[in-house]
From TrEMBL:
Biological classification of the source: Bacteria, Pseudomonadati, Pseudomonadota, Gammaproteobacteria, Enterobacterales
Residue runs in coiled coils: none
Superkingdom to which the source organism belongs: Bacteria
Gene from which the chain derives: mdlA_3
CDD domains found in the cross-reference section: MR_like
Organism: Budvicia aquatica
Keyword Metal-binding: yes
Protein name, as recorded: Mandelate racemase
Gene3D superfamilies hit by this protein: Enolase-like C-terminal domain (3.20.20.120), Enolase-like, N-terminal domain (3.30.390.10)
Length: 366
């Protein structure tokens, strides 16, 4: 089970649609990929991502510091490896680059574990359910017209999706309200509508908008403030009936603990890459269950579908395809439900011909 070779690649995936929110636009998805080979010839593959910056920093941390520490290590000792690597970077953690780098390694180790057990990830990690309903973000970007928002919501509802997430945070709050009212009127009361502020608001703005939006009956208001501001999220939770969602910009289990203990969030959106891999993701999800909180993770639907089906307290999966251009198989979707792969491992079937052709980085250590 000892690791004898570690390989690193990075591809830059261009979004298929224009993606804009209240603070940024997305032009690339740098995707570092790690392959680990054991002395018996087993291969585990994992990955992480950025939204346009930081890919070279993740590559440097992996190449110069983390991957060399794996050679000769027992690949089945996942907890030991994760904690040793975290401690080895204690001067730079907690931080995005460290967590994203750890995720590439940790997901590869879990891929090895599941393949060794000849079981899919969702069963090895818990096996709580066999499918999960989807909501879409791809039709809710801030630059889209009200007409386009309504058209997309009606289309995905027809395909069985449970809801749509609409970006908000326009300088004029009336624009946000009018857009959301139009969608609600078109789709009816049995359709889920979420909103996402992308950390763009101040507390007074968020309280005002939440009060103006309550009649629309939203399933959540996401990331109203900067992620470090637990107190502002708590005050918003106390002032509105709209559930508050956080998690995509949180990089440590301890930060989630602060939110849960402070009752500063209703929906936990833990991201498997940004939290540092499957090992800490599962801990956060189970911690959220102890506080009677719902888990609806951010992005990475190709991996989160299996993790959500591993836990009891997941509810919806975010539909944003990421890996279609570099994988041979897509996530199975039927009538608005996503199904986890039944294949041993993570269930991500990488197209290595494309990856070798498109890679911006190639590094091997033995």
């Amino acid at each position: 089970m000892k690791i004898v070779k570690a390989e690193l690649f990075m591809v830059d995936l261009k979004p298929k649609v224009k993606r804009t929110d209240a603070i940024q636009s997305f032009e690339s998805q740098e995707t570092p990929i790690v392959r680990l080979t054991t002395e018996s010839g087993e291969v585990g593959e994992g990955y992480t991502y950025t939204i346009g910056t930081g890919g070279s920093s993740i590559v440097a941390l992996l190449k110069d510091h983390l991957l060399p520490k794996l050679i000769g290590h027992d690949s089945s000792m996942i907890e030991e490896i994760w904690n040793k690597l975290l401690f080895s970077t204690h001067a730079t953690s907690v931080g995005a680059i460290t967590s994203l780098s750890l995720a590439a390694i940790d997901t590869a180790l879990w891929d090895l574990k599941c393949k060794r057990m000849n079981q899919p990830l969702y069963k090895v990690a818990g096996g709580a359910k066999s499918k999960l309903q989807l909501y879409t973000t791809e039709g809710g970007w801030l630059h889209l017209s009200t007409e386009d928002l309504v058209k997309d919501a009606l289309a995905v509802k027809e395909n069985g999706f449970c809801g749509s997430k609409i970006k908000i945070g326009s300088p004029n709050p009336n624009r946000d309200i009018q857009r959301l009212e139009a969608v609600r009127q078109a789709v009816g009361d049995d359709y889920v509508i979420m909103t996402d502020c992308n950390q763009a608001l101040k507390l007074s703005d968020a309280k005002q908008r939440a009060a103006l939006l309550e009649h629309i009956v939203l399933s959540w208001i996401e990331e109203p403030f900067l992620a470090h501001d637990v107190e502002a999220h708590k005050k918003l939770c106390e002032s509105t009936t709209i559930p508050v969602a956080v998690g995509e910009s949180i990089y440590s289990m301890q930060h989630f603990k602060e939110y849960l203990q402070g009752n500063a969030a209703d929906i936990i959106q833990v991201d498997v890459a940004r939290i540092g891999g499957i090992t800490p993701w599962l801990k956060v999800a189970h911690m959220a269950e102890c506080f009677n909180k719902i888990v609806c993770p951010h992005f990475l639907m190709e991996l989160h579908v299996s993790l959500c089906c591993a836990i009891q307290n997941s509810r919806w999966l975010e539909y944003i395809p990421q890996l279609d251009t570099v994988t041979l198989d897509k996530v199975k979707i039927e009538n608005g439900f996503a199904y986890p792969s039944q294949k041993p491992g993570l269930g991500i079937n990488w197209d290595w011909d494309v990856i070798h052709k498109e890679t911006l980085v190639k590094y091997t250590i033995e």
